[in-house]
Specification:
The protein has helices at 39-52, 79-89, 106-119, 134-138, 148-164, 202-211, 222-238, 257-270, 274-287, 293-298, 300-306, 316-328, 341-358; strands spanning 14-18, 56-58, 94-100, 124-129, 169-172, 177-181, 194-198, 214-217, 244-253, 310-314, 333-337. By secondary structure, the protein is of the alpha/beta class. The structure holds flavin mononucleotide.
Length: 363
């Protein structure tokens, strides 16, 4: 019997790990202990997170890196095959796959996602991204679609029909014209694995509010985070739906605030991979609306620290407080990154999780 997906479990604030499949994780730094994302690293990270009772592992979809001294992100594991491997060596944790709609056929995705759902006994999750990096898409000979989310709507429709239909079906859309389609097995989760969309801008929000259970998004300051939640709830209500919001934070958790600040300063300022940070920031600024415009100029350290995500830097108490404030803004979960996941997750889990239990956010 398949169990309830971990994202549908009782904890008010779900926690997971983001981007461990890629070199650097979310950081863009030259420090020696930076994340190399070897398979053994990923295995260890996943088993630590699984045993600690975190709810999900979420990979980044990346095909090309950002250059610089470290060739940040050039090394990254493809997310379906990564998920399949981790599904086989974990027991409880939800495992997402992150898909660039324009470069993966929905029929291929339907089969691969169902395969991971079977290997994991119903723990698979889908994270849809429409992508923002034309340099990356050029490697496929694909241009960034102006109406990427229209295509994503059809893409998801095809995938859902694959699972719903025992009989071959034809599909006639704008982007997909398919004949006699059949795809067995269906996913174990019905009608399909839990699905989120990673976006910040209006079109992505509309797509998520119509089609997904969750939006995966960023905010600049905790106190303004609730605006995005309210906006999404209103958009979903127009479709008579409910939606949850997940966000992403990079973490430096240390015994003292001074230690945490010093390390953040070192890896994300003094020893940042400045060339790669520049490439990443200028590309995102030009081609995506993932962040508020002023965020780029104000928060360069955040881009080196965690790809522009919000920093949780300090003692276990400070980080638990910040997480409590994020939860109070209405977020259902946080995807976390660390400079080195296997070195830093154990301390985080040992020290921050009990505080979140005391705060009533996790059991
Ligand atoms: C939290 C978050 C995670 C994302 N993860 C990825 C990713 O793994 N790969 C990718 O190419 N783009 C990723 N994106 C970028 C989105 O795919 C999208 O291209 C970008 O947000 C611009 O679209 P938007 O205007 O809808 O936000 C992410 C965006 C956000 C906000």
């Amino acid at each position: 019997m398949i169990k309830r997906h971990p994202l549908k479990g009782p904890n008010q604030l779900k926690l997971g790990v983001f981007s461990a499949n890629a070199d650097g994780g979310l950081a863009i730094t030259t420090v020696e202990e930076r994340w190399r994302a070897r398979w053994s690293d990923n295995q260890n990270m996943a088993q630590i997170a699984d045993r600690a009772g975190l709810e999900f592992l979420l990979p980044i979809a990346r095909w090309k890196g950002f250059g610089g001294q470290t060739k940040a992100r050039e090394w990254s594991f493809e997310t379906f095959t990564w998920a399949a491997g981790l599904a086989a060596i974990t027991e409880r944790i939800g495992i997402f796959m992150t898909v660039h709609v324009p470069v993966m056929h929905p029929l291929y995705a339907a089969k691969a996602l169902a395969t991971v759902d079977h290997i994991s006994n119903g723990r698979a999750g889908l994270n849809i991204v429409c992508g923002w990096n034309p340099v990356e898409f050029a490697m496929f000979g694909v241009s960034l679609a102006e109406k990427g989310y229209d295509q994503a709507g059809e893409w998801l429709d095809v995938l859902e029909k694959c699972y719903a239909s025992n009989e071959p079906f034809d599909y006639v859309g704008t982007y997909y014209k398919l004949k006699n389609v059949v795809s067995r097995p269906a996913s174990l989760q019905a009608p399909r694995p839990v699905t989120m969309n990673a976006a910040f801008g209006g079109p992505g929000r509309d797509f998520a509010s119509k089609h997904c259970e969750y939006l995966f998004t960023t905010f600049t300051d905790i106190d303004e985070g609730g605006q995005h939640v309210a906006d999404m709830k209103a958009r979903a209500a127009e479709h008579k739906r409910e939606i949850g919001l997940y966000t992403v934070c990079h973490v430096v958790c240390r015994e003292t605030q001074a230690e945490a600040d010093a390390y953040y300063e070192r890896y994300a300022l003094a020893e940042a991979d400045h060339g790669a940070v520049e490439t990443h920031m200028s590309g995102k600024k030009e081609f995506s609306s993932s962040h508020d415009t002023e965020a780029y100029d104000r928060y360069r350290q955040r881009f080196a620290g965690g790809a522009g995500s919000y920093p949780l830097v300090g003692t276990p108490e400070k980080i638990a407080d910040d997480m409590t404030r994020i939860s109070k803004q209405g977020y259902s979960g946080i995807a976390l990154s660390f400079v080195n996941y296997t070195y830093e997750l154990p301390f985080f889990c040992d020290r921050v999780l009990p505080l979140l239990r005391q705060a009533g956010l996790r059991s």
